[in-house]
Amino acid sequence: MKKTLLTMTTVALVALMPSLSIAGESDTCKGCHNGSVAPAVDALKTKFKTADALVAGAKSSQNPMMKAIQGDEAKLKAAAAEITK
Fold first, then answer.
1. How many whole angstroms separate alpha carbon 75 and alpha carbon 9?
2. Which of 16, 28, 59, 81 is the most buried (most CB within 10 A)?
3. Are the CB atoms for 26 and 41 separated by under 8 Å?
4. Whole-angstrom distance, CA of residue 10 vs CA of residue 6
5. Interacting residues of 57 by C-beta distance below 8 A, sequence separation 6+
6. Distance between CA 79 and CA 24 in Å, rounded?
7. pLDDT tens digit sequence for 9-40
8. What's the rounded Cα separation, in Å, for the pair 83 and 85?
């Protein structure tokens, strides 16, 4: 019984793993950019018309919560491209 339960749990986890990796780069932004902690993603779309402008805005932000992401320009560009499309 225990072996069957363990096997079924393992199969379920393996089946769900690919769906977890589908999340886009902008999904990491949505945790804070929800409108209460930081401006919502929709507000960012209206404020920044291009991905380059959004990246420049993110890099120039003085908010200490942005410090971790400001150093990863590739991730910023990927997220900005998803947000502005």
1. 33
2. 81
3. yes
4. 6
5. 47, 48
6. 8
7. 888 777 766 655 555 666 778 888 888 888 88
8. 6
Q: Residue 35 has which token pair?
A: 């409108």
CB atoms within 10 A of CB 44: 20
Amino acid at 48: F
CA distance 38 to 61: 12
Query: In the numeric block, which tokens belong to residue 40?
Result: 């919502």
List, in order, residues 6 or more apart from 47 with CB less than 8 Å away. 39, 57
Alpha helices in 1-85 (DSSP H): 2-20, 41-47, 51-60, 67-70, 73-84
pLDDT of the residue at 24:
66
Q: What angle do CA 53, 81, 34 make, to 5 degrees?
A: 85
Q: Which residues contact 35 (CB under 8 A, 6 or more apart)?
A: 43
- For 64-76, how does the pLDDT look when each residue is reduced to its tens digit (9 = 90+)? 888 888 888 888 8
